[in-house]
UniProtKB/TrEMBL annotation:
Belongs to the short-chain dehydrogenases/reductases (SDR) family. Pfam families: adh_short_C2 (PF13561). This is Glucose 1-dehydrogenase. One of its GO terms (molecular function) is glucose 1-dehydrogenase [NAD(P)+] activity. InterPro entries: NAD(P)-bd_dom_sf, Sc_DH/Rdtase_CS, SDR_fam. The keyword Oxidoreductase applies. Its EC number is 1.1.1.47. Keywords: Oxidoreductase.
Length: 251
């Protein structure tokens, strides 16, 4: 297998759909061996059929036992991972922050924040054992600014941004780079769900599109290209960055 990531072992959460799937396909095309994790078993199987030599493990990223089981399965199959991408995430409650239900708030933070932390906790020791490598977390442009429509989501992604920066500081001496990608609105099933949840989906879609100076939504492949850049040697001196991929939304 040839390519920029030939022979490298990459662990990816949220691999069954959207951005995680686009990253998986791009890494497979560049020669990486993949540990694909998601709670969507059918989505994982469909993806694995297109990624030679991939191992799929069905997990809930908020479960420490599930994450540890997946990490052990990957280690058995491939040896230690040197690349990690955390793409599993959810939107959570759309209510104003003070009206959100406690259970919805807790579930959102369990998946978006705890799920990212657990992935780092289980895979950074493998990356260290591999002699170094790179982590890319998926936060959001909404993690770098407040949000009227998704306040809980914005808070959870702000936490992912800061966790990523702290991990970058902690693990730089071990040759482990940690960067965070902050997408604007990208055409995936999650974006469709955002519009479907709105009282007036067409108006919400127009409002979201208008936030992006480039005048369109992003494509999953554009985010995957950025993730691969940050994982690769071209970003060898880049760590602790929270990089918007947002069509100029935060410019
Ligand atoms: N699409 C966008 O516009 C956008 C913008 C900014 C940030 N993001 C972030 O990018 C990441 C990927 O989003 P996407 O658009 O590809 O969404 P998506 O809904 O298409 O994919 C998310 C994947 O995560 C998985 N997942 C969710 N909860 C899980 C859990 N508890 N355990 C295991 N797997 C779980 C889902 O099954 C799904 O396969 C998310 O973290 C999201 O918040 C997306």
């Amino acid at each position: 297998m040839t390519g920029r990531f030939a022979g490298r072992v990459a662990a990816i959460t949220g691999a069954a759909s959207g951005l995680g799937r686009a990253v998986a396909e791009a890494l497979a095309a560049e020669g990486a061996r993949l540990l694909l994790m998601d709670r969507d078993a059918a989505g994982l199987e469909a993806l694995a059929a297109r990624c030679p030599d991939a191992l799929t493990v069905v997990i809930d990223v908020s479960s420490a036992a599930d994450m540890a089981r997946a990490a052990a399965a990957g280690l058995d199959r491939f040896g230690p991972a040197s690349l990690l991408v955390t793409a599993a995430g959810m939107l959570g409650p759309t209510a104003p922050a003070v009206e959100a239900e406690e259970a919805d708030w807790d579930r959102l933070f369990d998946v978006n924040v705890k799920g990212t932390w657990l992935a780092a906790k289980c895979f950074i020791p493998q990356i260290r054992a591999a002699g170094g490598g790179a982590v890319v977390t998926l936060a959001s442009a909404a993690g770098l600014t407040g949000s009227l429509s998704l306040p809980a989501y914005s808070a959870s992604k702000g936490a992912v941004v800061m966790l990523s920066r702290s991990l970058a500081l902690a693990h730089a001496p071990e040759g482990i780079r940690v960067n965070c990608v902050c997408p604007g609105s990208i055409e995936t099933p999650m974006l469709d769900a955002t519009f479907a949840a709105a009282a007036d989906p067409a108006a919400r879609m127009a409002e979201f599109r208008a936030r992006h100076p480039l005048g369109r939504f992003g494509q999953a492949r554009e985010v995957a290209d950025t993730v691969l850049f940050l994982l690769g040697e071209g970003a060898g001196f880049v760590t602790g960055v929270s990089l918007p991929v947002d069509g100029g939304r935060l410019a």
